[in-house]
Structures are given as C-alpha cells and as structure tokens.
Amino acid sequence: MPYANVTADMLKANYSNTRAALLEFRRRVEAFQHAVMVFQFCRPVWRRWIDLAGLSGTAPAAAGDPPVGADWLPPRWDWVDPIKDIRAEVEAIDAGLKSRSQAIAERGYDAEQVDAEIAADHAREQRLGIGFGAVRTEPGSAVMTDPADQTD
Question: Is 0.85 surpassed by the pTM of this model?
Fold first, then answer.
C-alpha cells in the first residue's frame, strides 16, 4: 500500500508520484484478486456450492455433467476524474477492447437489466414527448448530437 495512503502524510507527495505508487499497488491487488482470491478461494467455494446444490436437488445436475461456470469480475477501480473514466470506458468499448456487458458488470449491474431499463425509459420518453441527452435515431444506431445545438 502506498506510504501516503497508509500514513495520510501527503507533505512530500505530488500527483505524479502518488499516481505511480497507486498504480503499482492496484496492479498487485489485481494480481492477488485473480491468483489468490479467485483461484484459491472463489472457485473451490463455487464448485462445492454447485455440488451441494446438485445433491440437494436445488440445481439440476446429472452425474458426469460439467460443472456450471462462473465469471469472476472484481469491481473496477475509480479514479479522481470520473468524466475521464467514462470517456476511457467508452473508447475501450468503441475500440473493441472490452464489451458493454463487461463494463456494466464491473459496476455491479446486469447488462440485460440495464438494457431493458434503457429501452423502457426510451419508450416512456417517446410516449410522453420528452427527451434527455443525446438524440438517437433508432435502437442500435450511433449517437448523434442534438439538432437544436447545431449552428449554420
């Protein structure tokens, strides 16, 4: 853990050295999460839970069936500037470096539920004749700027 975070002594700290120390700390924590927490704790607990659920009849499991898998996504790290975080997230999705589902899951939400809420909100906005944010031409289309903001 970075010295400044442990001691709250920010006397000789600046943004760059604090960020560098924090990045290194986060890399170590992420390695621990994946190598220790997931592989040595979460996976064995999950396997045991699935086995017991199959034996108790609460989960359908036939002898010889492969175990049900699980994805382990630790929570994402927040930074100082949430606007830059969101822009970086959008750029990663647009570049195909991560999926929307992964980005949503890292925030602790279910992508299908979020998409259903967005669709319901959009339908309600259209029904009431109101709109917020960017103008979308149709579901799945690119986001366009609001025509009212355009100057000739």
Answer: no
Residue 19 counted as domain residue:
yes
123, part of any domain: no
End-to-end, the C-alpha distance of the chain in Å comes to 54
Residue 133 lies in a domain: no
Based on the structure, what is the number of domains in the chain?
1
- How far, rounded to the nearest angstrom, does the alpha carbon of residue 112 sit from its chain's CA centroid? 13
Give the separation between CA 106 and CA 86, rounded to whole angstroms. Answer: 13
CB of 61 closer than 8 Å to CB of 53: yes
Q: How far apart are CA 69 and CA 39, in angstroms?
A: 13
DSSP letter at 149?
Answer: G
* 82 domain-assigned: no
The string of pLDDT tens digits covering residues 95-104 is: 999 999 999 9
Distance CA 67, CA 51 (A): 8
User: Domain of 49?
Assistant: 1-72
